[in-house]
Amino acid sequence: MIQFDNKYSTIQLDPKWLADYFGINPEIAKLISLPIVILSLIIFCFFAWYLTKKIIVNTIHKLFLKTKITWDDILVEKRIFDKLALVVPALIITFAVPSILGEFPIISKYSVTFSMLVLLLVVIWTINAVLAVFNEILSHSPIFKDKPISSYIQVLNIIVYFVGGILILSLLLGKSPFYFLGAMGAMTAILLLIFKDTILGFVASIQMSVYDMVRVGDWIAMPKYDADGDVMSINLSTVKVQNWDKTITTIPTYAFINDSFKNWRGMSNSGGRRINRSIYVKVSSFCFCDEQMLEQFKKYTLIKDYILEKEAEIKKLNADLSDGESNPVNAISLTNVGVFRVYAENYILANPHINKQMTHMVRQLEPTSKGLPLEIYCFTYEKEWVKFEQVKSDIFDHLLTITSQFQLEVFEEPTGKDFQKLSGNTTEKSMLPRSYSPS
């Protein structure tokens, strides 16, 4: 039977009862009582854990799910209280084993050590789970949504694991935690080498957050790592970027401090997205506008007022010039390329997708071997990639097509057909198949 021993202040299964009742040797009866007690303790701990989980934990879950706030739902989703339920059997073993297994000090010692080890692991497990909950809550918060919260949470995770590891070693080896901290001092150089990327990433995360260099959701371009897309996540060691072809590039966090990159957030937050493209016009197609051309241009609504105004202005200026009528070199005239430039600028201003409050112009760049570049520079209201490209394409579709109305030619690299025309080999005979023989 179970008795209380005042000498050892222990509760034990009386081996004498087994010896008297079954006629077993007292020493053997003592050994037989050990597994019975351990089995009984295990069964008791299991029922204590089961009742805690089914009654207390389920009650907490039901209460949290009924509330209107969302953070407690995440606690339920992460099963925080299910993990804490393991504390109950560990505490039972810690306090009950010294009393029940007092005659077996070695087994009692290792059982208590095991139960305390379980307690430490449960605490570490629970703290990291709570940190994961904070990470999810803060990541969805409008205030911290674009901040590298994951980096700070990972630093806390490392600290928890570090402290937990020292406590576990202290428990298993029977040494003070300060003993291991002192030993760690001698390993500082090795630790710095092992955690070099982690330390650099942590410092980089702080700098990125303080100076607001990169946020989750930013469109960045980093040619060195072949990255061009949206930032998916910022962690302690890496930044994930989803490129426009849906591939994912992983970049070391500290690379954003050491290397250059382009952040398109300024464009996204501004009033428009820039169009900056040139049309190369052949210089050989430039000419002065004659009366017939000017009459034709007056039919174009976008430049009608400009032509009428310039005609009156030029007529007045030419009247003051001597010999202006007889020598066209001395006269002032409009050019087809100049009129086209004005037409292109007015066409852009008439486009409802162009932001007139931002810089807009059509200008000449330095002539090249490909002709004279006419640069169209403006900003569209459309920032989304597909819509932006549609607006840009519509503008250049029209301008490239209408150049012929101004007797202008757009530069193209010569092709094989152009060389054939120059060599005179485009006759009908040369185009026939070799096997064809006219009769």
Keywords for this entry:
alpha+beta; 439 residues; three-stranded antiparallel sheet; five-stranded antiparallel sheet; 56% helix
Describe the structure concisely for a colleague.
This protein is α+β, with helices and mostly antiparallel strands and 439 residues long.
Find the count of extended strands (DSSP E, 2+ residues): 10
Strand order of the largest sheet: 6-5-4-3-7
Q: Please report which band the strand proportion falls in: under 5%, 5-15%, 15-25%, 25-35%, 35-45% or over 45%.
A: 5-15%
Radius of gyration: 42 Å
Main sheet, how many strands, which sense, barrel?
A: 5 strands, antiparallel
Low-confidence stretches: 1-13, 426-439
Count of alpha and pi helical runs: 18
Structure description:
By secondary structure, the chain is of the alpha+beta class. It is built from 18 helices and 10 strands. The chain has helices at 15-22, 26-66, 71-77, 80-84, 87-100, 105-139, 149-173, 177-186, 188-194, 196-210, 255-258, 265-269, 291-297, 301-320, 336-350, 385-402, 416-423, 428-431; strands at 2-5, 10-13, 219-222, 227-234, 238-243, 248-252, 262-263, 273-281, 361-364, 372-380. The protein has a 5-stranded antiparallel β-sheet. A 3-stranded antiparallel β-sheet has the order 8-10-9, covered by helices on one side. Strands 1-2 form a two-stranded antiparallel ribbon. Helix 5 (87-100) packs antiparallel against helix 6 (105-139) and helix 7 (149-173) crosses helix 8 (177-186). It is elongated and about 130 Å long.
